[in-house]
Amino acid sequence: MANYQVKPYSNIAQIGLDKLDGTECSLNENADSPDGILIRSTKLSKDHLKEGLKAISRAGVGVNNLPIDLCTKKGIVVFNTPGANANAVKELVLAGLMLSSRNVFASIDFVNGLSHLKNMKELEPFLEENKKSFKGNELAGSTLGVVGLGSIGSLVARMGVALEMDVVGYDPALSVEA
């Protein structure tokens, strides 16, 4: 049974590294001439493409941090993982929508500035007078524009629909699945 040495050049999630268990591949962070390389956003140069390198796997969508032309010339197979982080990105979009539409940061700053009010008699009327400044807007009924309807964009669009937003999407390469 062959034993291929795989060198991670980035911090790869343990769940991904665990996929190598029980295979002919083993992690070796110190390999000088690995058979495979795992990366995320590390930019690889020709110096990383040692003799015997067979494959590079990128934990991410694009391959803009890889010298693709050189890999092709050397016969190095390049993989990426489109959609692997799509749900995490969708959740970050949701967090951004919620934080911005509901004035959360301004509200936090406001509350942090209340230390000068020492008792409830002062605090209650002050809060009542100022709370309208932070009412924000509901997402339902607002319009969400999504540019790109691939793995991430289609999840974001579905999330917007689930939140009763009016969703407008654009993708020049729209697929049937999206």
Concise account of the structure shown:
The chain is α/β, with parallel strands linked by helices and 178 residues long. It contains six helices and seven strands; from the N terminus they run E-H-E-E-E-H-E-H-H-H-E-H-E. A five-stranded parallel sheet has the order 2-1-3-4-5, with helices on one face. It has a two-stranded parallel sheet with strand order 6-7.
Describe the structure.
By secondary structure, the protein is of the alpha/beta class. The chain contains six helices and seven strands. A five-stranded parallel β-sheet has the order 2-1-3-4-5, with helices on one face. α6 links the parallel β6 and β7. α3 packs across α6. The radius of gyration is 24 Å and the shape is elongated. The model has no long low-confidence stretch (mean pLDDT 91).
